[in-house]
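Issue 218. Parser rejects a valid record. Input:
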Amino acid sequence: MNWTPAHPEVQRYISNLLTPWKQFVFMFTKLPGAMFFGIRVKILTPANAAVTLPYRWSTKNPFRSIYFAAQCAAGELATGILVMLALQGRASASILVSQVRAEFTKKANSLITFTCHQGQEVIETVEKVIAMDDAQTITMMAVGNNDKGEEVSKIYITWTIKKRPSLTTK
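Output the parser choked on:
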């Protein structure tokens, strides 16, 4: 299949993650930790993703800022939904976080929005996986900005994408 943003499975995936009750079901069944933190998907296109992380009791650390693990979870989701979107309507593949790196530059003590703009790069990586039948890695960056637009963190997630073997018998 030629992957396009207009493919019905791609559009259904975007619609499901941007519909509040369907997003709740997705978080509850697939990512309960993200749901506990209050992470929400705000933007999802084939090129970009944005998720928000609130400053509240479930995300606070004793230093009156957002716990680093909550920020990493939001960064993982902002990058991971682009990977999952690029896999919609294609051969089955496994994805795995193989490395995480983070930079914290400012105290996170308000709503943080994590954005990732590497959708096209992910699509190209997935196309290589399918064409070469070989695992590929991609390092993606989610930038976290507070409600004033100031950068508070950068989360780097390295994803390994591997095509699953065909289930047909010989």
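Fixed in the parser; the record now loads. The chain is about 35% helix and 30% strand.
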